Amino acid sequence: MREHSELKFIENLTKIVSELLVADHVMISEVFESDPSRAKALAFYSSGSLQPTLSYDLSGSPCETILELDSCVYNRGVCQLFPHDEMLQKLGAESYVGVPMMSVDGQKLGILAVLNNDATEYGAAELEMLQVAAAQAAAELTQIRITNHLKESKRRLRTLMNSLPGMAYRCKNDAAWTMEIVSRGARELTGYTPQQLENNTTIAYQDLIHPEDRMGIDREVTGATHSDSDYSLNYRIERADGETRWVWEQGKGIQNAAGVITHFEGFVLDVTEHYLQQELMAEIAYTDELTGLPNRAALLNELQCRYQQKLVTGDLTPCLLLLIDLNRFRSINQRFGLHVGDRLLRFVTHQLKRAANEQHEQAYLARLTGDEFVIVSAGSGATEDTVTRFLKAADAISELFAEPVSVGEHHLQLQFRVAGAYSTSADSAAELLQQASIALYEAKQNGLRYCIYDDQLAQKVRDESKLSERFRVALANQELTVHLQPQIDLQTGNCVGAEVLCRWFDEELGSVPPDVFIAIATKQGVLTELGYQVLEKTCALIRKWRERYAFVPVVSVNIGAQQFASLEVVDEFVKISEHLPAQAITFEITESDLMLDPQQALAVTERLRNYGFQLAIDDFGTGYSSLAYLQQFNVDILKIDMSFVQAMTLDEQSKNLVATIIAMARTLNLSTIAEGIETAEQAKLLKDLGCQQGQGYYFARPLSAAEFEQQWLHD
Questions:
Q1: What DSSP letter does each residue of 36-91 carry, written as one string?
Q2: Burial annotation 654-681 (CB, 10 A radius, 16+ → b, else e)
Q3: How far, in Å, CA of 253 to CA of 10, rounded?
Q4: Taken in order 336, 339, 340, 345, is the CA torsion positive or negative?
Q5: Stretch (H or E) spanning 713
Q6: What are the pLDDT digits (tens) for 51-72?
Q7: By percentage, how much of the chain surpasses pLDDT 70?
Q8: What confidence tier does 624 reach under pLDDT thresholds 50, 70, 90?
Q9: Taking residues 363-367, what's their average pLDDT?
Q10: Cα–Cα distance list, 164 to 196, 205, 234 (Å)
Q11: Which of 125, 224, 379, 459 lies 20 to 30 angstroms, CA to CA, from 199?
Q12: Where would I find the PAC domain in this sequence (predicted)?
């Protein structure tokens, strides 16, 4: 339906509605606020073709009521009900359905009407389709009106520009740009009459140009003439009365028959007020309203200017940028209110100005975001290195806020993180700011007060970026593999289960630890995709093994918090594991993941249970889940965290804790699996305490699928 023309779209829409509803007549009409008693048909599709558009009175027609109602439906007898509607009588319509066309702000723009020569009843679906069509028509009609308004605005602007006082000219392409023709607006613009300017009688126009601007004008005009293009200039002139004014000039070189530019023709307009207004707007655009400091845009502009100046002057002194982040500012806003947060930011601004002034006279202070500030120092040329300068500045900032700050009745202890970057390690202003942001992120991630972007951090960022990129490729190419660690019945010593563990071996990086690439997957939001791949590979193994062996242990697969975001994950699990009994798979969920959103977790686990899958809580005892939730989750297995298992032979308290977990599981009729068993002593103690199963290096390390099959599966 999409067309280059909005009106063509509306015409096509009437045709499509007619075809979809098998309607005899479809009309889309526009109603104006200036004359709400009449409507103008934008498109009228009747008896299989578009008809000439027309205007008609709304009074006495069914369309009149639509402007007061959401819709209007007459299944039969519409001509009898509206005998004075001439168009209705001419068409001989028997039924009528009308839907108003609404703008986004609720204004009624027009009407979509469907008429049939026979009695017709439309159901809810047809009426809904008409409302959708009316909304589309309203959107296109709105665009038509916007386009018309823009055209009218442009016309008015041209008229206004043509009436502005200004000076049209024709001058020679000589050293003085001697004026040959000057319009009457010259007097108001320059204070000189056209006669005084023509042929340089009293003064040459070039001599009115401010001395500081002449070189730039020469350069711009010369460049434009060489490229045969228009020139557009802003510069200052000195009027006859001595007043300095800003003007805007546009012109073009005029060639003779030989292709030589002999003259220039153009127009000069006084734009002083406009220029000053632009300066004011630029000041507003570059200033933070709350603190009065330069904002992010101003900071980038300042940094770029400093970069350009260093290139011109050859200054090698590093430009040091300090990014200052106020810790827990959001919680201050939430606890005490935005007015307290605003007063606090003004106080911080005052103190940072002190720090900036004490640091160096060339220091530049800006507010980057809500709780982030920046100090830029060009350096003093001292012999101390940039890192030392950074540490001294960071310490000075901390000292400013060593004492609690009183804001009204509140006394707040402020803490900051300070990150830094310096210009010799960045090629542009944006890169310098990005490097400082990276350093700040590093400080937050590692709980550091200070962090500077240096070669070591740069290498770390490059390594992480490379690792992330190779992981994305490995995931896309299905290069990750599954290993299995057996789960042993502590009474019989038989393998009764296995936990699936994902492994990634990269040809360049070697074996990448799971916690590293799982963190990457979590950060990139692809943990769910990774989980699906692991489950797909696992189910393929189980299917193959079930064809070969009479007994295949139950296989446990971990699912993460990101996979709990939607109930649709359960449908995907069922689809991946089709043709396998649900009892062949146990899903392991860490206790901490369950407690991130207990209600959502309950919904997902309930659906998994309904499909027959077994559920295990992994790392039990570390997530602080309540017994009430434990009962609601309706799990089958508790996996005792390895930290408890490895400590229970060392102290009585850990042993009692493990015993309590096993007793609680027995009371709730749950199975228990102990993780991280590394010694015979641990295995025996767990067996004596009543734990059913265990896994760990004492029994076997994680094995490849082939190794697991060879060692633990038998005919």
A1: EEEEEEEEEEETTEEE---EEE-TTSHHHHHTTSS-EEE-S-HHHH-TT-HHHHHH
A2: bbebbbebbeebeeeebbbbbbbbeeee
A3: 47
A4: positive
A5: none
A6: 988 888 888 888 877 766 678 8
A7: 92
A8: low
A9: 85
A10: 22, 20, 17
A11: 224
A12: 231-283
pTM for this structure?
0.54
Continuous H helices in 372-513 = 386-400, 429-446, 455-476
CB distance 689 to 524 below 8 Å:
no
Active-site residue (options: 568, 675, 678, 681): 675
Q: Which two structure tokens, joined as six digits, stand for 307?
A: 């970069």
**Residue-range domains of the chain with CATH:** 6-158 (3.30.450.40), 165-276 (3.30.450.20), 286-453 (3.30.70.270), 473-712 (3.20.20.450)
Q: What region, left, alpha or beta, does residue 350 occupy, with left being phi > 0 and alpha being psi -120 to 50 degrees?
A: alpha
Asked whether the predicted pLDDT for residue 619 surpasses 60, the reply is yes
As a whole number, mean pLDDT of residues 359-365 equals 69
Place of tokens 């860490």: 590
Q: State the Cα–Cα distance between residues 79 and 254, nearest whole angstrom.
A: 70
Residue 362 CB partners (closer than 8 Å, separation 6+): 377, 378
Place of tokens 């009409």: 29
Per-residue H/E/C for 513-543? CHHHHHHHHHHHCCHHHHHHHHHHHHHHHHH
For residue 384, indicate whether it is catalytic. no
The Cα–Cα gap between 7 and 140 comes to 8
What residues have CB less than 8 Å from 629, skipping those under 6 apart? 594, 595, 598, 602
Residue pointed to by tokens 């563990």: 501
Comparison of pLDDT for 541 and 326, the residue scoring more? 541
Burial of 555 (0-12, 13-18, 19+ CB in 10 A): buried
> Dihedrals φ, ψ of 107, to 5°?
-75, 135
Q: Is 421 helix (H, G, I), strand (E, B) or coil?
A: strand
Alpha-carbon distances of 56 from 327, 363, 508, rounded to whole Å: 67, 71, 77
| CA–CA dist 226, 573 (Å, integer) | 69
- By the 8 A CB rule, do 46 and 73 touch? no
- Model pLDDT for residues 206-241, shown as the tens digit of each residue: 999 999 898 889 888 888 888 888 999 999 999 999
With left for phi above 0 and alpha for psi between -120 and 50, is residue 441 left, alpha or beta? alpha
Q: Examine the pLDDT at 541 and tell me if it is beyond 90.
A: yes
Tokens of 41: 């048909």
Q: Cα 363 vs. chain centroid, distance in angstroms?
A: 33
Beta bridge partners of 179: 171, 198
382 pLDDT higher than 50:
no
Give ∠ CA 707-710-714 in degrees, rounded to 5: 145
